[in-house]
Amino acid sequence: MTLAEVVLGVMFVGLIAYGLFGGADFGAGIWDLLAGGTRRGARQRDLIEHSIAPVWEANHVWLIFVLVVLWTAFPGAFAAVVTTLYIPLTLAAFGMIARGAAFAFRKSISTLGMRRFLGASFALSSLVTPYFLGAVVGGVASGRVPAGIAAGDVITSWMNPTSALGGVLAVLVCAYLAAVFLCADAHREAAEDLADQFRARAIGTAVLTGLIGIAGLFVLRADAPLLFEGLTGRALPVVVLSVVAGVAAFVLLATRRYVPARLASALAVTAILVGWAVAQYPYLLLPEVTIEEAAGGRATLVAMLVALVGGSLILVPALVYLYVLFQRSQPDMSSTPSGPPSRSAPIS
Amino acid sequence: MNPLDLLADAAENLYPARMQMALSLGWHIVFACFGIAFPLITVFTEWQGYKRGDAALTELAHTWAKAMGVLFAAGAVSGTLLSFEMGILWPGLMDRFGEVFGFPFVLEGFAFFIEAIFVGVYLFGWNRLSPKAHMLSALPMILSGPAGAFFVVAANAWMNNPTGFRLDEQGRVTDAQPWAAMFGPSTWPQVTHMLLAAYMVTGFTIASVYAVGMLRGRRDRRHRLGLLIPLTFAAVLTPVQIGVGDWIANTVADNQPAKLAAMEGQYETTAGAPLSVGGLYYDDELHYALEIPNGLSLLIHHDPDGVVLGLEEFPVDQRPPVNVVHLAFDTMVGLGSALLLLAGWFGWTWWRKRRIPRTAWFLRAVAVSGVAAIVAMEAGWVTTEVGRQPWIVYGILRTADAVSPAPGLYLGFYAVVVIYVLLTGLTVFVLRRLAGSADTPAPQEVDAEPPEPGGGEVAVR
């Protein structure tokens, strides 16, 4: 592995973490949207708020991390991607603002109208933001971002079959992860009825994601032949792993073994992302810019690697502390049902 | 043909992109200030409350912790938008120089991560961790705010004084040295100036909230302490800030003489240059300004006859817009001086009498000091950012050459205006509620603790 590949690999770990943790946060917002009327959905919404409150800010820093590593280590490719795809990226950023602000401020507000408005913006932006991010991935993966500033088509680069597939899959995967994670959270709080509701949703979303995934292969064959070739060629073992993990998660959910189901689902989603990376290796921007070509200077990459290793030494214990603290504080919260489940602990 | 292609024009994007960046940064920086300084002030108060067994102090710290959570959330979301905008609006900067000056942002990513984690720990750990463990858990949060500020301001300092790379004949970067780039000549003065500004903004603003309460007749112990603690932080640091201002002005004079000339509206290169206050610059001259003879030379060179370079030394297309820079600079200095007077008044009375001045004018002055500190800080950023124009990387890359030519980009500006108007309204609304409910005897606990019983149910009950 070259230095550039190592740095990109570390960035990709951040991307996977964002996909899992940030993705589950988005998914929780989607279920908030679909929880039903104010009264009927109240308990589900409680569980959701409960689950993501202490960790959502940290979960979304992963995206910042991905952006800053890209613009420092692969500045040209970064500039090409964000300028050609500026519309979905801007919309995703707006979605993140609406979502974060609404979620944080909703707690401090007790008037029904305001809470409904904020709740709706939280939930709706949880739905559209992953769609736009998935569409961005679709644009890059189908080779619609050429090298150069704003060199690609700013519309068709994200309004195309592969982007639509990427967007829909992103939404489904987020919803799926959240449902699986929420099952275990509900179970831990002895809310078995809620656990069953989310279990049904997890299974339903899993089936839907699987079907769309299969249909998606035909879309890719027609619209993104290079990616299709990679996925069915070099990346095939990873794709198979994803399918196996997905099926395992399905079985574990069906038998109500929630914690192993979490692990299996996380593995399935990770494998999808890794499959994409393997399929388009060694290109950063299909079909012309390779990782090596896009990389910055050696001193920058070395500095980056030093920072990434040093930073992780501080960051990883801090993250573990965060998740463990909230998990442990659970039992002794008698008056106020508490905190945030450690849905991420098993994976982190 | 794509309809948006008709709109493709980098020149058309330049002004909206600059305004969008100014708005996003100008909004974010206020919340960043609280992220830098509020944790220390809050934890200090919590510590005092713990040490003295004083419930009023502990309660005050708890209110501030909640406010800090709201402000941090607003800062986090606005910061996210900024990281997108760096690339979306200024690809020419990131494409060419990302490998040189992008590095501090990576470190800032870690600092922000730690901050986000420990703000969560601090808020949720209230009453759940032992007081000592709780205060200890705040330490990373106290440190990561200023660390993050260092990294971001270091990147900005690089744009003012680019170092740590070489350019080949085609102008391409060779030999990028990110560590050297991070520690250019402007970094330390700018960072110090910003950190002190953050404490001034936070201290004066919180104090002003309690000053307003006291003016309305709420003179209880809680209000007195709420005014006293943050005001002390701010007042102690204000004189230091004036000294740092001298340091940074000297750095600008050495490295960015065109910016300094614009700050003072100085057209001709002059020995024994006067310090000009106010006025309007046109026809290559500053009119109607109040002049303090030899003042500028004295400030810059610490010699009344020192030579100060004027704008005439620079080609017309390399001069920043003078009026904006000059008036912004005067605004910052004027408000900073007013805050210094306020700090002196407070300090003198405290030293002689161990109490705050009794007159309502003091409370009125404190009540407006928060806004004054924020305006001064914003004016300072306008001075340094507009004063760097027309360059995005001083002397090397023009802002006009860095902006994205993507069609329709300028439309984003209008969307950002709408979003920030909404976000500002919401933030103010929530903070006001928080301030209001903290006064009530049975405050509705709406802090970041576990979920309240469902959305509608609360209101229905």
Automatic annotation (TrEMBL), chain A:
It is found in: Cell membrane. The keyword Chaperone does not apply. The chain crosses the membrane at residues 6-34, 55-74, 86-105, 117-142, 162-182, 202-222, 234-254, 261-279, 299-326. It comes from the Bacteria. InterPro entries: Cyt-d_oxidase_su2. Keywords: Cell membrane, Membrane, Transmembrane, Transmembrane helix. GO terms for molecular function: electron transfer activity; oxidoreductase activity, acting on diphenols and related substances as donors, oxygen as acceptor. GO terms for cellular component: cytochrome complex; plasma membrane. This is Cytochrome bd-I ubiquinol oxidase subunit 2 apoprotein. It comes from Geodermatophilus obscurus.
UniProtKB/TrEMBL annotation, chain B:
InterPro entries: Cyt-d_ubiquinol_oxidase_su_1 (IPR002585). GO terms for cellular component: cytochrome complex; plasma membrane. GO terms for biological process: aerobic electron transport chain. Signal peptide: none annotated. It is a multi-pass membrane protein. GO terms for molecular function: electron transfer activity; heme binding; metal ion binding; oxidoreductase activity, acting on diphenols and related substances as donors, oxygen as acceptor. It is found in: Cell membrane. The chain crosses the membrane at residues 25-47, 68-90, 102-124, 136-159, 191-213, 225-244, 324-348, 360-381, 411-431. Residues 440-461 are annotated as: Disordered. It comes from the Bacteria. It holds the Pfam family Cyt_bd_oxida_I. PANTHER family: CYTOCHROME BD MENAQUINOL OXIDASE SUBUNIT I-RELATED, CYTOCHROME D UBIQUINOL OXIDASE. This is Cytochrome bd-I ubiquinol oxidase subunit 1 apoprotein. It comes from Geodermatophilus obscurus.
